[in-house]
Amino acid sequence: MTPAVTYIVSAYDRPQALRCCLASIQLQIDDDFECVVADNGLQRYQGEHARIVAELRDHRFSHFNTAYHSTTPAWDCYWSAEWIMKHGGTTGEFICLPSDDSYYVPLFQEAMLAEARACELSLVYCDMLYDRRGHGKYHVKAVAPRVCEIDKTCFMLKRDSWIGFPTKPQQPISSNCDGEMIVELVSRGIRHGRVAEPLVVHN
Question: How confident is the model over 73-100, as a mean pLDDT?
């Protein structure tokens, strides 16, 4: 049976943060999902990432080593998510792209899907509690579909609207390509909307 949501969780070098992120997904009230850890991490962390997934003892969770899996390694979170979309066998109606340093309130999936279905949205996003970057203190970000006002942790996108990250970096550098993907989708006329509640924490 096709799950409502596929979570593709990027993991690099924060095993304890990953453990918290996965627990928050496992605690979703609406439990119709699958979750893949897309591991583009340093080699010394990959075994621990895999163990964290195994310890959940939950068939909905799996681990893929994308950084060393092929001759074209997916070495950052954007390339890694694209690799999973092409090769990971996921089937969810909606895609969600958590970072390992994010976590979700238990109502996240239920509220996001309710809004998407009620308003026939292909893209739905919510506000989030954001860390001290830019403001010097934790703050609620009122998310908007613009670069630097949204990131990959706080939206769900219908699978049939997925275009990948057209501007993903060609070397390991900081990037706004998640926001740039959203801007591109909006420019194409995708139906989108916001849940005006902070349902995500991004550290």
Answer: 89
